[in-house]
């Protein structure tokens, strides 16, 4: 029954592995919403940087910048 993702320690291991995969996918994509207010971000200006029309937040490309406050 080892490694089947069922109950017990192997189930916990499966949850941890799935969490790592979700986190990796999050880090690899651009944000779709402002981390401060939740408004959808838009590409704008001459540089095409993602920004929030509501509060002026601009994404600088770092994952830490996309974390909610």
Show the helix and strand layout.
Layout: H1 9-28, E1 42-44, E2 49-51
Antiparallel strand pairs: 1-2
Q: Could you tell me how far the N terminus lies from the C terminus, measured between alpha carbons in angstroms? A: 43 Å
Strand content: 5-15%
Tell the overall outline: elongated
Supply Rg.
18 Å
Provide a count of the helices: 1
Percent of residues in helical segments?
25-40%
What structural category characterises the helix and strand content? Answer: alpha+beta
Strand order in the sheet with the most strands: 1-2
Task: Give, in order, the helices and strands.
Answer: HEE
User: What is the oligomeric state here?
Assistant: single chain
Give me the count of strands: 2
**Main sheet attributes: strand count, strand direction, barrel closure:** 2 strands, antiparallel
* Total domains: 2
The mean pLDDT is: 83
| Low-pLDDT sequence parts | none
What does this structure look like?
The protein has 69 residues and is of the alpha+beta class. The protein folds into 2 domains: 1-29, no CATH class; 31-69, no CATH class. Helices cover 29% and strands 9% of the residues. The protein is built from 1 helix and 2 strands; from the N terminus they run αββ. It has one helix at residues 9-28, and strands spanning 42-44, 49-51. The protein has a two-stranded antiparallel sheet with strand order 1-2. The longest helix has 20 residues, at 9-28. The termini are far apart.
Notable features of this structure?
69 residues, alpha+beta, 2 domains, two-stranded antiparallel ribbon, 1 helix
């Amino acid at each position: 029954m080892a490694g089947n993702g069922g109950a017990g320690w192997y189930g916990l291991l499966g949850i941890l592995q799935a969490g790592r995969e979700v986190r990796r996918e999050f880090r690899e994509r651009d944000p779709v919403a402002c981390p401060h207010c939740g408004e959808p971000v838009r590409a704008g200006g001459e540089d095409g940087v993602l920004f929030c029309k509501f509060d002026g937040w601009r994404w600088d490309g770092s994952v830490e910048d996309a974390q909610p406050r």
